[in-house]
Amino acid sequence: MRNLLNILISVCVSLSMVISPVYAQVVSLQASLVMTLPAAGELISVTPAFQPAMMQGMSLYPDDPLKFDFMIHPGQVVLDDQAYEQESLKLIKYFLASLTTPEDHMWVNLSPYESDRIIANDFGNTTMGRDLLAQDYMLKQLSASLTHPDSPIGELFWERVYDKALEKLNITDIPVNTFNKIWIIPEY
Fold this sequence. Notes:
Helices cover 52% and strands 7% of the residues. The chain is mainly alpha-helical. The chain has 2 domains: 50-100, no CATH class; 105-188, no CATH class.
């Protein structure tokens, strides 16, 4: 009986050592995302153009195929050494995710009409997938803010939409879900 109790305690302690840090990372990650993204429905404004850090290349070593160096341009903002290292690591993780995730799995979809198709499981386990979801959320927030009928741009937008609908289709009753297909498309 005592051996069984010792084994049970060992298993519980071992599991808690593995599960607790992983759970803490997930909770911490979710909390950091929630704290940096605007609340749903909150109007946001356009920010000035910005050049982020960007991976520009990499060096390969033929005599050591598992060794390579990445060349990272720091972008527009001057980062201290620790912030530059964190940003570089994030870009390297993006690169590695793009190599290991099938191309047809690299998508996100925050459409309210397809809640069962938000992100492919394997891509959802990557930093790149999480960050692309955040960017898609911001894109939806920005487009909703710009087309909000109470904003100057939104008022002009809807006036033009209704004018064109009347002119071309002879209708003014336009379904709202016609206007929520907004996509991030890569440049080739």
